[in-house]
Amino acid sequence: MTTLGRTIAIFAAASVAWPASASAQQLTTEQAERAEADLKARYRDALAMARDQVADARRRERAERRLAKANAARASAQRELAQLGIAVPAAAPVPALAPAQAGAPAPAPAPAAPVVAQQKLDVAAVRAAADAEAENKATRDFGGLALGTGLSLTVDLGTRDRIAEATVVDGIVRIKKSNNTPARLLFESHYLFKPQFDLLGVESDMWGVGPFVAIQPGDKEVINAIGLGVMLAFRREPTKTDSFNLGFGVIIDPDVQLLGDGIEANKPLPTGETMIRYREDSQIGLMAMASFSF
Fold first, then answer.
1. Do 293 and 148 form a contact (C-beta atoms < 8 A)?
2. Can you point out the beta strands (E) in the chain?
3. 285 and 252 assigned to the same domain
4. pLDDT, tens digit, for every residue of 118-153?
5. For 6-35, how does the pLDDT look when each residue is reduced to its tens digit (9 = 90+)?
6. Where does the record locate the signal sequence feature (predicted)?
7. Which domain holds residue 124?
8. Inter-CA distances, 70 with 76, 87, 216, Å
9. Does 246 lie in the same domain as 173?
């Protein structure tokens, strides 16, 4: 090769190598940051997917147990039929019918014993699969916002008794009826979280915990009392989201009837007064509630 040819080849190789080197140096700090953010986002997505897989593992295990029981029942029935000398083919042929007499309707053929057994086994398998699907759906839907109704018991924390009725006997104030631990019917709304661990032998998919708000509607007032606290919810059946709930918290009564100022139980009325005065005030108490969600 001549000197001119070698020079041309060197310049050609340099012209090819130079753009590649320049493009490698064009990775700016901004591009590096974008690449790092993309990697972090992929890591978070992978971590969330792993957590979901761990949460679904127990549900899949329960569904597999139900299907395994159905398959075991099917195999047991097939063994019993085999011991009796009855084969259960995938599609057993139906025996041919005897010729019908002229003018008389042909009787309906009775299904062969193997066909009946196969049909029963198939129905059992279908039911088991349907139950497993219903259980998985109920587990997914359980939690979040829900409504319920229940009964509560309040322990009053106020310094003065709730007075329903009082009278004056020989100038002394006597309490005829008071109630510092009222029972009530409440309507409540709660939001449940689903921790991924068992509680007192209850599997993680069968219970939840979260805050609740409850109200007691009134006759004269729109709301007689309002409460809030923390609730534990336990599903009653694996295939349903209905739950039995236990709530603990505080409740506030905005209009509690108390003895008027200056009037005390088992003491004389203030000088110059002949009748018992009442007043209404707010009172707070501790509350325990049992409810059913719907």
1. yes
2. 144-156, 163-169, 172-178, 183-192, 207-217, 223-235, 243-259, 278-293
3. yes
4. 555 556 666 666 666 666 776 777 778 889 999 999
5. 655 555 554 544 454 544 455 577 777 787
6. 1-24
7. 60-87+111-141
8. 10, 20, 48
9. yes
